[in-house]
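Handout, page 2. Input:
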Amino acid sequence: MTRPDHALAVLRRNSDLAGLAAGSFGFDLERAEHGEEVRLASGAPLRAVAGDDTGGTYFVCADGALLYASSEGEAGLIGAGTDEALEILFGLPGWHDYTDLDPAAGDDELEAVFDRTEDGIRDSCGPGLDADRSTLLNGLGLRRLPRRELLRRLQESLLRTEPEFLLLNAYEGCAYEPLDRLPRPPLWQTVLAPGRADLARMRADHDHRDAIAGDPVRRATVLRAAQYDRQPGDLPLLRTLLRHEALLGPTEELCLAAVLVALHGEPEDHAWLRSLRESDPDFHFLLGGFPASAPALTQWAAEFDESDYGQDPDEEHELTWTALARRQGRTELARAALIRVLDGTGPRDEALLGCLVREFEALGDLGQAIRARRLHASLQDDAGKRGAALVDLASLQRCHGEAEAARQSLQRAVTVLDGPPPPPPPADRQPELDLGPDPALPEPSCRTVTWRELGLGARVTEEYLLIAQAAAPLGLHETARSALGSGKAMLDALAHPTENLRRAAEAAEAAQTPAAPRPA
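Output:
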């Protein structure tokens, strides 16, 4: 059986073929080095194998797929394997010009574009393009496919780039833009597809209802599908979804299910929802403004629906779909969409950045969570909020193995929270005599409590001690000593240090002392 990377292996052994590939076809094995460090968002391995004279680079992914990254910050998948990709690259020289072509265009129109591009290559590289292509394809054991078919394959590969092959700048964490501008389905369409299928099953066969409704993730997806596809006969299945969701407590899905059921305006549903609301303060809060009488149920639901839900999935925030994708186990789909959202944030997106931090944490992507929290902290004008955000940043960095960065962020937090020192008195100012308290004035009844004496002070103390524990095993002894010293100083100043903080200090001190070697 032929290896999927057979052609690349032959190309490496045959300098004549490698020279032809580097010439008119821009696949140069000697240029296998990208201009900046990159990585896949998924964390899967990536290996540069060739480049072109524009600074672009070809990478082989773990599954053998070939990814191209331009020097202008764009990237896209060329083929599912190197052999398939090389058939496209050598069969469609100048392929960069074809990424946005309409594959449904007529044969004459497409052939005219192909011919015009190849004529330009002949003008710049010489008339031997066709002979070189035949020599390459024959020498590498590759097929000569119709150019229209190669275009179809190229564009199908480009559309498969995300989410699995999303390329990031390794230092900044920002995503490369797509190589193409081909239309793609919205995220909600992909996420809702299994919910729509389950909704159809629940409508067609009552026996499926409890099995689907009993699964929290399937239930949440079906509820969203039912939100955008409402039918008069859905009330029984909506009741099933509602009752199953109520077992989980006051969730967002419970509120949606309640609204969808209440829109039907049945008295028995009013009685059930009122009983649920009165059973727990959290349910009472979730179903705010619930009507006392059944006739008002439909109006309550309609107002709730208009303000919080609606019937157009395009109007729903992208984070609704990323959270649902994450719950479905589609980690890379959620990650890629969240990174795109983060890349598009600006100075007015303070609240959104806080939400993105939580979503990345839920995905386990601490690197992107750090990036979002750093941006979030930079937007805080209030010293208390900025300091708290920097403490959160330090915690994320520590958990990500960045102990020194965490210590620096925590020190910045302390500096911000303490505020600027008071200005020194003027040099020509005469010292005031201390005459003691004025007996005519009442004694002060209280003093200002600083952040160091509140919960934030205990949290910063703990974080210093945890950084000291984390840094020592990494060999960052100066970081560990500095963090331990700061943590102990804050611990000693606390009026009521907890036992957990004392134990954290003991563990941090113990981490500084290497374990004694065992006797032989």
